[in-house]
Amino acid sequence: MSKPATLFNRVALIGVGLIGSSIARAVRAQGAATSIVATARSAATRRRVAELGLADQVVESNAAAVEGADLVIVSIPVGACAAVAAEIGPHLAPGAIVSDVGSVKGAVVRDMAPHLPKGVHFVPAHPVAGTEYSGPDAGFAELFVNRWCILTPPAGTDPQAVDRLAAFWRLLGANVDSMTPDHHDLVLAVTSHLPHLIAYTIVGTADELEAVTRSEVLKFSAGGFRDFTRIAASDPTMWRDVFLANKDAVLEMLGRFNEDVAALTKAIRRGDGDALFEHFTRTRAIRKGIVDIGQDSPAPDFGRPHPDLPHEPLPKPYGSED
Amino acid sequence: MSKPATLFNRVALIGVGLIGSSIARAVRAQGAATSIVATARSAATRRRVAELGLADQVVESNAAAVEGADLVIVSIPVGACAAVAAEIGPHLAPGAIVSDVGSVKGAVVRDMAPHLPKGVHFVPAHPVAGTEYSGPDAGFAELFVNRWCILTPPAGTDPQAVDRLAAFWRLLGANVDSMTPDHHDLVLAVTSHLPHLIAYTIVGTADELEAVTRSEVLKFSAGGFRDFTRIAASDPTMWRDVFLANKDAVLEMLGRFNEDVAALTKAIRRGDGDALFEHFTRTRAIRKGIVDIGQDSPAPDFGRPHPDLPHEPLPKPYGSED
């Protein structure tokens, strides 16, 4: 019975927001690496990472972070990946694995690959997990448990490097799948990018009405609206970059969505109750499928807490017995 | 110190699904009535209500349920309200309060009021609360705590009856507001009906793609999509009726939503990152407003549970130390 081997000697984390700091915490919790070195663009974030003790070492530059690292994970908005790849390229150790966590893969491969030297293994990754919060305080070690991490290694990537990164993500609790960058971008356009765009849209729509006040929108949001506000509170920079980087697939999905909105609108306008009922019954089955495979909780209302009933005296003396 | 007075002597519940059964449980928990009589359209539901002990008496007809009741609450799809009102009208006790819980108020007032005799107080109500589950097993006593219940009494309604129903809902933990039926229907069109329609649409869109399989949609739903599936799993009959009954306000909100989708689509097509960033920053503030007034949980990801990290041996012997 040998002790469990660490997967990597020195992991370099570039960017320590929600995802980067969750990786740091999970690596520690699972003993996945001997040491963690971290860096972030802003001095405030670097200071906070040090205060939280998320890394063995916090350094000021991306170049310094990657020196001697056998795994480098870039966890930053996808629009910033090209510049970071150009910066770290000359400083990467031979044989190092370079990965990322970006929500778009075609653009990331296009932007990063040209800057990475021969002898370095580029294995792009996307852990499909997150919350509406941002920054190093928002992360937690369990974020990736039972979530999927998608690897999109370019053709010709060393299979051993891919296996090693897959083992890393499994150790952090994730399930691992792999596909081409283009297919990833199409799949995520529908399971993530379109939902975010629609949520951002409807929250904006509700905020711009004249006949209904913002106060009313907030008060009565438990009727359904509040569910959309969570993902519409996601990091604006990250999401701006996602839509710019995955433009074609998002526009394709938006086109299909618009057709479906038009069809349901027509059913409402014509009073076609049967069409509505049929559609609403079908979508119920999708929810069940997601809960059945453990990708959401069966708890009602996402498991939101419900406070106890207040046992206070009645506001006025009513009733027949007193 | 007198014991707290019960608000009502005999509460009749017509319809005992998620909402009706939650009312039954909350009335019991808070001692809001001396006795509860319940009925439901299907024999199976009546049997289940009796098994669960949700009422003191379960009867087979709406007419029998309302005999001698001083409060009648109709908790059924809004499309069925006219027929039920016609049925109970002749059997209501003088001075009784008749209310409902429908998500549309204009149509309910139009459909029910003509059937209710003079001397009976009609106070329509809408508790803005629910989950994606249906039926008598789905209810719980705390459902209404800190949620809003909107009363829409027609002009000329006895203020004492309105006050008494308001006191009832407060005793069940709700905050109470009142407004006209038309304004209610506009407010709920944006805070509830439009979100449900959009959720139903996008879940259908995702299920009809050729290039992305249903299995992929389910697996990678944690990217945002799964949030929409919860409300798209709501009761199909209830929601069919809502859209038919609140057609004008829903179509108005859909028109505005479509304009906003078009504006964001244009920003993506043109690569206008500043417009996207500005919009995404603004919507973040709305989420904060909802959490600040206690209408949603500040817990990340709605407080969804995250399983612990599995401390299992590594899948393969990797790393530098073994």
What's this, in brief?
2 copies of one chain form a homodimer. Chain A has 12 helices and 9 strands. By secondary structure, the first copy, chain A, is an alpha/beta fold.
Question: Mind explaining what this structure looks like?
Answer:
The structure is a homodimer of 322-residue chains. In chain A, helix 7 packs across helix 9 (225-231). The longest helix of chain A has 27 residues, at 181-207. The first copy, chain A, is built from twelve helices and nine strands. By secondary structure, chain A is α/β, with parallel strands linked by helices. Chain A folds into two domains: 8-180, NAD(P)-binding Rossmann-like Domain (Rossmann fold); 184-296, 6-phosphogluconate dehydrogenase C-terminal like domain (6-phosphogluconate dehydrogenase C-terminal fold), CATH 1.10.3660.10. Helices cover 47% and strands 11% of the residues of chain A.
Secondary-structure blueprint:
2 copies of one chain form a homodimer.
Chain A: E1 8-14, H1 18-30, E2 33-39, H2 43-52, E3 57-58, H3 62-66, E4 71-74, H4 81-88, E5 97-100, H5 106-112, E6 121-122, E7 125-127, E8 148-151, H6 159-171, E9 175-178, H7 181-207, H8 214-219, H9 225-231, H10 236-245, H11 247-270, H12 273-292
Parallel strand pairs in A: 1-2, 1-4, 2-3, 4-5, 5-6, 8-9
Antiparallel strand pairs in A: 7-8
